[in-house]
Amino acid sequence: MTSARQLYQHIFKGITVYPEKESQAIAFMLMEHFLRLRNIDVLVDRPVPEGTVQPDWDNIIARLNDNEPVQHIIGSTEFCGLEFQVSSSVLIPRPETEELVRMVTRDYAEPDQNIEILDIGTGSGCIAIVLARFLPHVQVHAWDVSDQALEVARENARQLLADVAFAKQDMLNVTFPLAGNTQQFDCLVSNPPYVTYAEQEHMRPNVLRFEPHEALFVEDNDPLLFYKAIADFGQHHIKPNGRCYVEINEHFGAQTKEVFVERGYADVEILRDIHGKDRFIRAFWKK
C-alpha cells in the first residue's frame, strides 16, 4: 500500500470480528503506532514515505481476527494520557478505571503532608503510577499477588518516572515482613476481581482468551470476596478519617455497599460511571 488511505482500507476491511466503528478505531490505532500516520493523513490520503518499514499487516489482521487484543499486538495502551505497557499477565486498563483515578486525584488534590495511598491488586500499575504522577505530594504503595504483573508494573513505573513502592501481597492473606506491623494508609484504592464465572457467556473472546482470569473472576458463590477482604483490612490499616475507593460489579452495588456499612464505614456511596452504571464505592473510615 503506497498511501495512507489505501493502507487504512486494507486494515479496516480485513478486520471481521469487531463492529465497524471499532474496526475503524483499531485501524487508526495501528497506523499511528507503527507508522505515525494520523487520522488526518488518511483523510488527505498522504503517501506513505518511501523506505518506510511496514509490519506484516496480514499477520496482524489475522491475529486480530483470532481475537487477540490490539493492545497486545501494539504492546501498550493509553491510560489517563500516559502510555502503559501491557501483556497477557495484566488486565488492559479500562476507561471506567480512569474515572476511579480521577475521583481519588480530586479528593487528594490539596497538598498535605505524609499522605499514603495503597493500590491493591495493581496489575499493570496504571492506578498507582497515575496517582504518583498526578499527586507528587503523596506516597503511593502498590500490591499484587502476581510476580509477572509486578514485573510489568515496575517497568511501567520506570518508563513513566513514577515513584511507587511495589510489593508482592495476597489481599486474601496479607502478611507483613514483621509481626505486628501496624502500617496505616490514608487511602485504599482497588479494582479487584469482580466478574462472576456465570457472566463469562456475556464476555467477548478477546477478554476471555487473552486477559488473566485471576485478575478478572471471582467464584459465583462468593462474588464479594475481595471487597470483604479490603473492608476488613481497612478496619485496621486506614487512618482515622481515611477513605476507601473500589471499582465494583454493576450487579452487586447495594450488596457491596452493605459490606462496608456492616464493617463500620461511614458515608458509603455508590457512584455511577459514564454509562450510568453502578461502578464505584467511596467509603470513609472515621473511627
From TrEMBL:
GO terms, molecular function: nucleic acid binding; peptide chain release factor N(5)-glutamine methyltransferase activity
Membrane-traversing stretches: none
Catalyzed reaction equations: L-glutaminyl-[peptide chain release factor] + S-adenosyl-L-methionine = N(5)-methyl-L-glutaminyl-[peptide chain release factor] + S-adenosyl-L-homocysteine + H(+)
Gene3D superfamilies: DNA helicase RuvA subunit, C-terminal domain, Vaccinia Virus protein VP39
The Methyltransferase small domain, residue ranges: 113-199
EC number: 2.1.1.297
EC class name: transferase
Keywords, in A-Z order: Methyltransferase, S-adenosyl-L-methionine, Transferase
One BP annotation, GO: methylation
Superkingdom of origin organism: Bacteria
Name of the protein: peptide chain release factor N(5)-glutamine methyltransferase
Lineage: Bacteria, Pseudomonadati, Bacteroidota, Cytophagia, Cytophagales
